[in-house]
Fold:
Amino acid sequence: MVTIKVAINGFGTIGKRVADAIDAQKDMEIVGVTKTGPSFGCGLAVKKGFPLYCTFDDNEKISSFANSDYDCKGGLTDLLSIADVVIDCAPGKMGADNLQKYKSAGIKYMFQGGEKHSLTGLSYTSSANHSENFNAQGTRVVSCNTTGLSRTLVPLFDYCGSLKVECTMIRRAADPGDSDKGPINAIQPVLKVPSHHGPDVMTVKPEIEINSLAVAVPTTLMHVHSIIADLPEGHGLTTEKIIQMWKDTPRVIVMNGKDDRIPTTAEVMEMARDIGRKWGDLHEIFVWEDGVKLVNNRLYYFQAIHQESDVIPENVDCVRALMGTEKDWKLSVAKTDLAISEYYGI
Structure:
């Protein structure tokens, strides 16, 4: 079995999680991760046994590691020279500069949803367009919200053949570690209409007609989506059939808010901690069963998205797509999820 050599450019909130998920896979290995300079995160990389590189090729920045306890192997160019594919987990707005570096290195590359679709001209989610990304040179794993919408809407579209969707994203104001963001005591509407989330779904599944609005609220736990989907005439579905469809869909959890005593995102995240997920992560999309209702051709439902982690397994599947090692998305998903579960012993 060929082992895919993976570089992680950016070892932060997403990068450290992607690195663990890649490290869990039998067909992949981490050849290095980058940091901009000595920091607490470097210690985590060293503890995990990931070779440490500097995000830049600047000798002064590389030499800043020399005065620390961390062994820096070199700059980004050095890392790219030994990898098959790079997963860009750098902060937003660095994509254009990094893309030129990846192209110069002749390496396959993938960005995160903070970058625009236009950067790569190709985007990815496992369920929507794995095959379209097969053997591509580079792509972008869509955002946490777009990933969440794809997980529940794509099976509906595949069954019905068409779908018109309106959704409202109730967004967390910041990740738990972001102390400098708000709002604190306010609800902030996103005044760009429509919000980017709906149109972003169409970068991976253009056949779905979707619009979206968004508001930011003072919580750090999760996003919640309020979704209305119009199904075509003669769809043949019932509320119960749709619920079962999602129960049979990879990376979707359906639970009853009342009966299972999980009425809010606080209980959802407590469940993730209880089942032993590292960082209390929830890779799956959470759907409240008692919030699902089909009235004639109109479907109403709510779902919750753990913004720090639902895209993590998608990055792993995307590596296989770009490298052309697994064409069946469901087989890749099964490999990815089993390996991660075994890695954490859950």
Notes: The radius of gyration is 20 Å. The chain has two domains: 4-142+311-344, 144-305.
